[in-house]
Amino acid sequence: MSSFLRTANKKMQRQSEKLLQKVTKREGTKDEDYDEAVANFTKQQTQATRLFKESQNYLKAIRGAIEASRTFGEAIKAVYEPEWPNSDDAYATIETMDVQFNEFAEKINSSIVEPMNDYLQTFPDYKARIAKRDRKVIDFDRARRAQEVAREKQSSKLEQAEKEFADAKRLFTEINEEVHDVLPAFFVSRVNFYGTMLAKYYATEIEHNDKANETASAMKAHMEAIASNESLTNPMPRERSVASADPPAAEAASASPIAEPAPQSVPAEVAEEHPQVDLSEPAAAAAEEPSAAEASGELPADVLEIRFATHAYEGQDEDELTFAKGDRIEVIPFAEPEDEDDGWLNGRLANGKTGVFPKNFTRDA
Predict the structure, then answer these.
(1) Which helix (H) or strand (E) holds 344?
(2) DSSP code at position 264
(3) CB 58 within 8 A of CB 205
(4) How far apart are CA 116 and CA 290, in angstroms?
């Protein structure tokens, strides 16, 4: 009989024995110690499989966090301007964080994921022994039953039945003793395996956290240096002083009060013909006449006062007005009170342009 046919025949005999035990309620060989060992093995494999799966998920999450940390660090470097204190050190610290995170991922892989994968590779061998023992116990029960039947019937096949039973008993005893030894030992070995592996894992966590705390403390120090730097936290976007906006000396002199010329005498006949003419007022004064609303003291709601330029001024910054001598300027409130500077006002020209200007280049209307 070929090997294939022998194997097929044994499978049929085993299935027949299982069915017979189920139908006739005939009990097979019972072994509570073995049953407990198999239950422990099954639990051990289930727990190991779960731990391996969760370690993989944890490593995957770490690698996702690495990418998130990298892009977050780039965003921090973008707002940490190069001219700020310790910018080079801060950039290097952020890059160090990336390196530490990658090292952590590699150590997690080597300290728990890979060991768990190797550990799971040992289970198939034990499962094969359990399966072999289960086959041999069926052969043993079948051979024992055949021997008992032959004895009862005083069959001529008794000798053959006894030989087959002896062989089945020997094979069953060998594998049964083996699994009774290896299964409990393997179950107990999990204690040392998990203890050693997880101790290494937590050591990796501690090492990473210590390094992360060190780099985070360095970044905290950099940020505190920024927060306490008055030149950064209290910037003066317009370093203006009244002195720097003094009118030109020549114009200042022209702005000084001068004695007005005595009114010119007018012939009596001319005065009688043109009584409305007053030659004592300069023609330029007409250009500075206030509007009817201003004359009555009424100004637009957003206008604080009206001023006229006594000197020309060329704006030195984008938010400064440029105007000529004699220009009319409406003084309006600052949008932000902290933008106010001594000696400077916020104004609007006739063309609608708004900006700041030096007060001492103007006069009250």
Answers:
(1) strand 344-348
(2) P
(3) no
(4) 91
pLDDT at 260 over 90: no
Q: How many residues belong to the chain?
A: 365
Confidence at residue 7, expressed as pLDDT on a 0 to 100 scale: 64
What are the tokens at 186?
């393997």
Residue 348: pLDDT over 70 = yes
Q: CB atoms < 10 A from the CB of 343, how many?
A: 14
Q: Count Cβ atoms within 10 A of the Cβ of residue 180 and give its class: 0-12 exposed, 13-18 middle, 19 or more buried.
A: middle
Distance between CA 157 and CA 108 in Å, rounded? Answer: 65
Nearest to 55 by CA among 120, 102, 103: 120
If DSSP codes are grouped into helix, strand and coil, which group holds residue 157? coil
Alpha-carbon gap, residue 93 to 99, rounded angstroms: 10
Q: Which pLDDT band holds residue 11 (cuts at 50, 70, 90)? A: low
How far apart (Å, rounded) are the C-alpha atoms in residues 217 and 260? 74
In angstroms, the CA 330 to CA 355 distance is 11
pLDDT at 154: 83
CA 126 – CA 130 distance, rounded (Å): 6
